[in-house]
Amino acid sequence: MTIIDLLDLVVNKPRFSCFSLMYHLISLYLVKKNVLASTRRPRKKSVAVVGIGRVGLPLALILASKGLTVYGLGRDKEKITKINDGVMPFLEKGAPTLLRQVRKKRFFATTDYSVISSCDFIVLTLGTPIDENMNPVFSQIEKAIGEMKRYIRKEQTLILRSTVSPRTTRYVKSLLNDVEGIKVGHNFFLAFCPERIAEGRALEEIATIPQMVGGVDEKSTIKAKELFRLLGVDTILTDDISAELAKLFTNMYRYINFAMANEFMVLADYYQRDIHTIVQLVNYGYTRGGVSLPGFTAGPCLFKDGFFMISELPFADLFLTSWKINESVPLFLVKKLRDATDLVNKKAVILGLAFKAEIDDVRASLSFKAKKALLRERMTVILHDPYVKDTQGQGLVPDVYDAVKHADVIFVGTNHKMYSSLDIPRIKRLVNKNCMVCDIWNVFGSGKILFPLEELTH
Ligand SMILES: NC(=O)c1ccc[n+]([C@@H]2O[C@H](COP(=O)([O-])OP(=O)(O)OC[C@H]3O[C@@H](n4cnc5c(N)ncnc54)[C@H](O)[C@@H]3O)[C@@H](O)[C@H]2O)c1
């Protein structure tokens, strides 16, 4: 505020009190004396998010909504055009609206790596799969760093956000130090800041989950914190390896828990008891209970993350055992079906292909393993999912009631909400006589894993 502005206020705004006038005069004096910070706003930062998939795109949109200029770097030109036109490539609650708000204003999807040179932060949200021997694959990270080498410059901060095996951030540090003029920790900064969202709830969770910030050195931690504090959540400062382990332990804790639930299901079945009844007996009114219910435990993250630990240490048996248990569940269920009824030349319908409820992501979904096993029993297999698009010609039937027509087996693969409110009398009229239901998720509410549809009373 200048002297002229102040005079204008006093003359034109009678309610402008003497007290406010004094306050503003003192502020003006202090600013002139450099005692208060200048009122000029600092330049808004810019960010390149490399890999605009399920993790990168929601983060990029949120950062853009905070006023930053964000470039989303991808490889697929057609996908990039669609995103710039406001079309989300996958299901994510709230994202279509946010995309329309920020696209071409604060968010720009591109395949052009040269935008990196104008950015303060570079965030890598690339895929980190495992290969056929269950070893971590770093090629997406290596390739992206190779492509960005000629655009990175001093004083930038690179944040690795993909889930990685321990010490990968140190490996990235060595790749960056190979770039002429770059010395991580001195004139370039590097941190590991893992993503912990659940697909479908990314926008809500980025705005609520505390962010781990693990720099390879103190300066890097402070630089990376500058970006994550903009999300308005707590930042937890640590080092890179601790953050890498914390992310892996977050996922593995859940994976082992679900494996335990699935093992309990198999044990209960051995004694011909229903797991849902037993879990209720354990948990009801007992504060130290908390046993999980069984289900298909899958998805690209939980499936692979344990192997990031095993690849270096051969002693992580709990991870390996959990993987064996969780991955064997579809075959356990198909065996139960085979023991209960004749499957050859019969028709099965799998309800749900996504690896978990209310999303459209089929990566590493156990429904495909179930399909394969049912086909091996010589069944015809029909698929239904309300969210998954039939992009790979999987033969999905769009309407659930069409899908169940003449079915001998209804096999629930995913606990999408819509399956809990199906019109059961209508389904009973559509399926074949003696139709069996295999319902690990208990979406039909019978409390049984396997039962004849006729038994359902609603
Ligand atoms: N999906 C989740 O719910 C989730 C949650 C937390 C952490 N993670 C981790 O985050 C990482 C990313 O997972 P995701 O599910 O988003 O994977 P994704 O496959 O959806 O996204 C990765 C994207 O990177 C792109 N890409 C690959 N190489 C590139 C390059 N050189 N330049 C530009 N783009 C490139 C791919 O085309 C893809 O779109 C993984 O490490 C994963 O384990 C995922």
Brief summary:
The chain has three domains: 3-32, no CATH class; 46-233, NAD(P)-binding Rossmann-like Domain (Rossmann fold, 3-Layer(aba) Sandwich); 270-455, Rossmann fold, CATH 3.40.50.720. The protein has 16 helices and 13 strands. It has helices at residues 3-12, 18-32, 56-65, 77-84, 95-102, 139-148, 168-177, 202-206, 218-228, 240-270, 275-283, 300-310, 317-340, 367-376, 400-403, 424-430, and strands spanning 46-50, 69-73, 107-110, 121-124, 157-160, 189-192, 211-215, 235-239, 347-351, 380-384, 409-412, 436-438, 450-452.
Structure notes:
By secondary structure, this protein is of the alpha/beta class. It folds into three domains: 3-32, no CATH class; 46-233, 3-Layer(aba) Sandwich (Rossmann fold), CATH 3.40.50.720; 270-455, NAD(P)-binding Rossmann-like Domain (Rossmann fold), CATH 3.40.50.720. It contains 16 helices and 13 strands. It has helices at 3-12, 18-32, 56-65, 77-84, 95-102, 139-148, 168-177, 202-206, 218-228, 240-270, 275-283, 300-310, 317-340, 367-376, 400-403, 424-430; strands spanning 46-50, 69-73, 107-110, 121-124, 157-160, 189-192, 211-215, 235-239, 347-351, 380-384, 409-412, 436-438, 450-452. The chain is elongated. Bound molecules: nicotinamide-adenine-dinucleotide. Nicotinamide-adenine-dinucleotide binds next to helix 6.
